[in-house]
C-alpha cells in the first residue's frame, strides 16, 4: 500500500459532481493498493498513520499525532499512486490492484483506521469521479509505502 498523507486545515471530496464530504483539521490520505498488499500492510500502515507526530504542540514543535488532537481523517482511493513512469510518457498502472482485490482492502483499511482512531473516517467512493480540495497545513506532505518499511 502506498499513501500520501497531507496535514490539512480542511479538505473535501465531491463525488460524481453531486455529493460533497468534508473534514476540518486532520489528515487527508490518498491511498493506492497494489496486488501484493494484504492485512499485514493495513495493520502496519494504520498504526504508522495514527501515531505519526506531524502536528504542532503548544511550542510549535511537530510532536502530536492525529490521535492526540482528536483530528479528522479523510481517505480517498487513488490507483495512480502506483504509476510506473520509467518508459515513455504514458504511465502504466500494472502494479495497481484491480477492483476485486482493491475494494475489500480499501474498505478494510478505512474500517481499521476508524476503529483505531475511535472516530468515523470520511471517504471518497472507490472508482467514482472525484474532485478533491485541500488546504495543506504547513505544507506537510508525507509518502509512505508498506513495501519500504526500513
Automatic annotation (TrEMBL):
InterPro entries: Daa-tRNA_deacyls_DTD (IPR003732), DTD-like_sf (IPR023509)
One Pfam family in the UniProt entry: Tyr_Deacylase
Known catalytic reactions: a D-aminoacyl-tRNA + H2O = a tRNA + a D-alpha-amino acid + H(+); glycyl-tRNA(Ala) + H2O = tRNA(Ala) + glycine + H(+)
One Gene Ontology term, aspect cellular component: cytoplasm
UniProt-listed SUPFAM superfamilies: DTD-like
Main location per the UniProt record: cytoplasm
Motif Gly-cisPro motif, important for rejection of L-amino acids per UniProt: ranges: 138-139
A GO molecular-function descriptor: Gly-tRNA(Ala) deacylase activity
E.C. designation(s): 3.1.1.96, 3.1.1.-
Keywords in alphabetical order: Cytoplasm, Hydrolase, RNA-binding, tRNA-binding
Gene Ontology BP, a term: D-amino acid catabolic process
Top-rank taxon, per record: Bacteria
Subcellular location as annotated: Cytoplasm
Entry domain remark: A Gly-cisPro motif from one monomer fits into the active site of the other monomer to allow specific chiral rejection of L-amino acids.
Subunit structure: Homodimer.
Role this protein plays: An aminoacyl-tRNA editing enzyme that deacylates mischarged D-aminoacyl-tRNAs. Also deacylates mischarged glycyl-tRNA(Ala), protecting cells against glycine mischarging by AlaRS. Acts via tRNA-based rather than protein-based catalysis; rejects L-amino acids rather than detecting D-amino acids in the active site. By recycling D-aminoacyl-tRNA to D-amino acids and free tRNA molecules, this enzyme counteracts the toxicity associated with the formation of D-aminoacyl-tRNA entities in vivo and helps enforce protein L-homochirality.
UniProt cross-references to PANTHER family, sorted A to Z: D-AMINOACYL-TRNA DEACYLASE 1 (PTHR10472:SF5), D-TYROSYL-TRNA TYR DEACYLASE (PTHR10472)
Family note: Belongs to the DTD family.
Name under which the protein is recorded: D-aminoacyl-tRNA deacylase
Organism: Marinilabilia salmonicolor
Amino acid at each position: 500500500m502506498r499513501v500520501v498523507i497531507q496535514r490539512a486545515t480542511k479538505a473535501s471530496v465531491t463525488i460524481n459532481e453531486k455529493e460533497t464530504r468534508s473534514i476540518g483539521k486532520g489528515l487527508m490520505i490518498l491511498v493506492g493498493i497494489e496486488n501484493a498488499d494484504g492485512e499485514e500492510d493495513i495493520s502496519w500502515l494504520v498504526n504508522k498513520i495514527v501515531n505519526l507526530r506531524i502536528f504542532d504542540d503548544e511550542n510549535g514543535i511537530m510532536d502530536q499525532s492525529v490521535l492526540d488532537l482528536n483530528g479528522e481523517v479523510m481517505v480517498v482511493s487513488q490507483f495512480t499512486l502506483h504509476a510506473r513512469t520509467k518508459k515513455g510518457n504514458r504511465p502504466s498502472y500494472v502494479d495497481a490492484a484491480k477492483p476485486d482485490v482493491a475494494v475489500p482492502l480499501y474498505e478494510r483499511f478505512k474500517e481499521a483506521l476508524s476503529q483505531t482512531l475511535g472516530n468515523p473516517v470520511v471517504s471518497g467512493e472507490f472508482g467514482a469521479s472525484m474532485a478533491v480540495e485541500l488546504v495543506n497545513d504547513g505544507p506537510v506532505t508525507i509518502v509512505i509505502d508498506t513495501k519500504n518499511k526500513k
